[in-house]
Design the sequence.
């Protein structure tokens, strides 16, 4: 979910997997910390407005529509993408990571769904614990994409069309799955 999300600077797209591929895991940590900060912000917004989102089905439908369109756009971009051999560094990687998450409709849907739809017994069923758990899961996913980006760099460059097609198909399925 998080590794394929992109941040566009006007000249280039940035994402967790690409940062790992191009700069290595350690140098991609600031970008991932920005993503972590973005998760905290979006999760807080979703938790604050969770009751409103639950009461108005039209808000959820609108978010699903925007999220589906965004997923379809990402699938299209994945099909067009080629390996980037440049090693351009972000000037403000923490800010770029935070902007990536705070402008990503999928992250809003992730928190709205997780905070409102899933119930757990005991301590884990309380809103603050679900919020912290979702931030932890999202952060682990992002760091995993960064690690995978570095590990699979050579394979990706050699077989990028296959990889991009598989990711595009997963994004298409995700767009469909939002409406089930």
Sequence:
């Amino acid at each position: 979910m998080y590794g394929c999300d992109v941040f566009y600077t006007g000249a280039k797209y940035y994402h967790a997997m690409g940062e790992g591929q191009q700069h290595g895991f350690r140098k991609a940590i600031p970008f991932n910390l920005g993503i972590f900060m973005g998760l905290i912000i979006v999760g807080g917004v979703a938790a604050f407005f969770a009751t409103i989102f639950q009461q108005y089905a039209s808000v959820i439908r609108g978010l699903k529509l925007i999220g589906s369109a965004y997923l379809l756009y990402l699938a299209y971009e994945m099909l067009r993408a080629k390996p980037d051999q440049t090693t351009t560094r972000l000037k403000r990687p923490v800010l770029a990571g935070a902007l990536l998450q705070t402008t990503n409709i999928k992250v809003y849907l992730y928190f709205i769904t997780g905070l409102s739809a899933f119930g757990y017994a005991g301590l884990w069923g309380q809103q603050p614990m679900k919020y912290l758990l979702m931030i932890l899961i999202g952060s682990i996913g992002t760091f995993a994409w960064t690690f995978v980006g570095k590990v699979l760099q050579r394979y990706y460059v050699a077989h990028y069309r296959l990889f991009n097609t598989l990711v595009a198909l997963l994004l298409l399925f995700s767009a469909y799955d939002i409406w089930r």
Observations:
- Residues 1-13 have pLDDT under 50 and may be disordered.
- The first helix runs from residue 16 to 23.
- Strands lie at 7-8, 13-14.
- Residues 93 and 154 are 24 Å apart (CA to CA).
